[in-house]
Specification:
Blueprint (H helix, E strand, L loop, with lengths): L28 E7 L2 E6 L14 H15 L2 H12 L15 H15 L1 E3 L2 E2 H10 L4 H14 L2 H7 L3 H9 L4 H4 L2 H15 L8 E8 L2 H7 L2 H19 L6 E4 L4 E7 L3 H16 L14 E7 L6 H17 L5 E3 L18
Parallel strand pairs: 8-9
Antiparallel strand pairs: 1-2, 3-4, 5-7, 5-8, 6-7
Helix pairs in contact: 1-3, 2-4, 4-5, 7-9, 10-11, 11-12
Length: 354
């Protein structure tokens, strides 16, 4: 669609577009009213991405705008409504711009929710929102929402049929004890060699990788001692392992001096981000003062999702390079790794952490 075309006309080329880690560039979405309460979406640059076969075609977005409009018309009610639907701790809430006309707010919000992906295992943020809406409406509207379910929740089908290579390689290759988890050379070899050898580009793998780096450990070593630093590293991996033990197949290991990886098979980036946030809080609130007076330890995290257009080492590099962003933004936070790498990036992981 050219820039001069009427925003009321839907770009039919988007009808079969599949949306990997995001939807539509939210800076390019405008909405034109068709008449009555119907809305069409105009995309000025068609920057479409894919979230494991999640499809939001223009007619579906129109339906969602019309369904959600009565609840989100008032700017003051938007955040409380989404908190009720998604929970107060959902990280996606931090990325939503709550102001603006409802006809542009809703498509922008849907893009953010789709990018966030799962709010809990097997349930996308968009569907969690619609389930809450369903609880507030009558039978006729409930049926409309039910009809949308198979169109916007294809992950439930893919999860049962997805390639299980990531689970298999993780069960075979990852550490099975705290002592092995601390072996940074073994972790480095796993990320650089074993994982890429086991997952080929274009294989259909669902999962995410997170990198975690202890903040200011060099300063702590100088202020206290290196022995204390070693104890902090050991305690940190214990905290990580304890928090992930309730999830199937997730395991972690050390891959640098004070850097760890967390491999999350069959978990998309939104849920991976939430799990890392739980770990981050546990590290921050741990009783570190029992080791040394006034000791405070925090950790920064970066998360990326595997996708068919890149090999697994490139996914790891995206997650590792995101650690720099986390440090610049103040440390002790969870961020997403960059969507794309520069041309001919360094694939030497030690270029991104020590």
């Amino acid at each position: 669609m050219s820039e001069s075309q009427d925003p009321k006309q839907v770009n039919n080329d988007l009808g079969n577009a599949q949306l990997v880690e995001g939807l539509i560039n939210t800076d390019t979405v405008t909405v034109g009213q068709m008449g009555g309460n119907g809305y069409n979406i105009h995309y000025s640059h068609s920057n479409i991405k894919n979230v494991y076969n999640l499809k939001l075609e223009p007619n579906i977005i129109n339906d969602l705008v019309n369904l959600l409009r009565p609840f989100l018309e008032d700017e003051r009610s938007r955040r409380p409504f989404l908190v009720s639907a998604l929970g107060n701790d959902a990280p996606v809430l931090q990325h939503i711009n709550w102001s603006g006309a409802v006809a542009s707010f809703i498509p922008d919000m849907l893009c953010k929710l789709a990018d966030y992906s799962e709010i809990s295992p097997g349930k996308t943020a968009i569907w969690a929102l619609l389930e809450y809406v369903r609880s507030q409406v009558g039978v006729d509207v409930q049926k409309r929402i039910d009809d949308l379910h198979p169109l916007i929740e294809p992950q439930t089908i893919l999860r049962d049929t997805a390639d299980s290579k990531l689970v298999e390689v993780f069960n075979q290759k990852t550490p099975d004890s705290s002592e092995q988890s601390l072996d940074k050379e073994a972790g480095d070899i796993f990320l650089k060699n074993l994982l890429p050898d086991s997952i080929n580009t274009n294989s259909r793998v669902i999962g995410s990788i997170a990198m975690a780096d202890i903040d200011d450990l060099t300063i702590i070593n100088k202020h206290y001692s290196r022995d204390l630093g070693d104890q902090i590293i050991a305690n940190t991996i214990d905290i990580i392992n304890n928090k992930i033990s309730k999830y199937n197949n997730i395991q972690a290991g050390r891959c640098g001096d004070d850097t760890f990886y967390i491999l999350l098979p069959e978990i998309e980036i939104g849920m991976a981000e939430s799990i890392c946030e739980q770990i981050r809080i546990s590290i921050e609130t741990n009783a570190w003062s029992l080791l040394a007076t006034d000791l405070r330890v925090t950790c920064s995290f970066s998360v990326s999702q595997f996708r068919a257009t890149e090999n697994s080492l490139e996914t790891v590099v995206r997650a590792a390079s995101g650690l720099k962003t986390a440090k610049i933004r103040g440390k002790n936070i969870v961020v997403r790794g960059p969507m794309f790498l520069p041309q001919k990036p360094s694939l030497n992981l030690r270029d991104y952490y020590s």
